[in-house]
Amino acid sequence: MAQVPVTVTVTGAAGQIGYALLFRIASGQLLGADVPVRLRLLEIPQAVKAAEGTAMELDDCAFPLLDSVDIFDDANQAFEGCNVALLVGARPRAKGMERGDLLEANGGIFKPQGEAINAGAAADVRVLVVGNPANTNALIAQSHAPDVPADRFNAMTRLDHNRALTQLAKKLGVSINDIRKLTIWGNHSATQYPDIFHAEVGGANAAKAVGDQSWIENEFIPTVAKRGAAIIEARGASSAASAANAAIDHVYDWVNGTPEDDWTSAAFPSDGSYGVPEGIISSFPAVSRNGRWEIVRGLDIDAFSRERIDASVQELVEERDTVKQLGLV
Ligand code: NAD
Ligand code: LMR
């Protein structure tokens, strides 16, 4: 019997990331080469026509796994029966906007989307928030979906993880395939902490293989943490294909599991591990087992790492407090 299609809802479908993402989902890269998908696209009314253009192109690819494409400007309809939700559409920071204004503007998007997921998504729904500020947008959506287990709401730090892998591989002149157990801690922002002290290169400790604390502190960490801004500076627009690629990696691993000898980075509600306050959506070293993320336990955190994890988590706590004051969580 043919497999029942998985329903994937993508918000901001007419945007840059949407354009890089939808064709990969429809070709089977999000869930697996044998899993048919039903796409439900959400856009604001002004962008529905552009989303229709993308849907025409999806038709023109004749993807064997693509069951259907439907476009909505109503969140309740878009999330009806959804198994995987990719929340990409967000309000960008405009000139003169303070961080609080940005959080408030995004609250207007992620609160109703959380409510719509709560009301109509499938029982097994998994939600990945890509739209910035991703961790706190995920917290807002999650807090308005009380009937969905909190750990089904993730924020994306896989792009940061992939960026860190490449910087380290280049420094050591090794292949990406040789690197294991790298971690992004904290927020998807410039305070994030890319940690190579537990990472391995060909089985040896990566930080020792680098052997240069100054490179770690003054080049590696800032290059990874500020890569998003560097891409904007170079391209005149924020990363799109690499962000879409990271969303594919994140969901594929969440659904299909991570390799036995490795871990990745994903942001989801803290259970209090590593001193991260419970409920804060922070990035952790994580493995996916049986369709759920588990935090990698028992890592020794030295003073250098502790200070950086704490700084990023403090920023998340402040964002949480701001949206709390605004009545958004
Ligand atoms: P974009 O401006 O090209 O597209 C955003 C789309 O979202 C637009 O088409 C817009 O109409 C739509 N949109 C706005 N409000 C919406 C709503 N309420 N419902 C549905 N759609 C809505 O932006 P982009 O380059 O595709 O980036 C999208 C977001 O992803 C941004 O917030 C960006 O900062 C973020 N981003 C995150 C990461 C990450 O690693 N987490 C990486 C890159 C970009
Ligand atoms: C990125 O990391 O590339 C983006 O989050 C940058 C941005 O502000 O959109």
Automatic annotation (TrEMBL):
Keywords, comma-separated and alphabetical: NAD, Oxidoreductase, Tricarboxylic acid cycle
Active site: 188 (proton acceptor)
One GO-annotated biological process of the protein: malate metabolic process
Location of the Lactate/malate dehydrogenase N-terminal domain: 7-146
Residue positions binding NAD(+): 12-18, 106, 113, 130-132
Molecular-function annotations in GO: L-malate dehydrogenase (NAD+) activity
UniProt record similarity statement: Belongs to the LDH/MDH superfamily. MDH type 2 family.
PANTHER family in the record: MALATE DEHYDROGENASE
Protein's recorded name: Malate dehydrogenase
Gene designation per UniProt: mdh
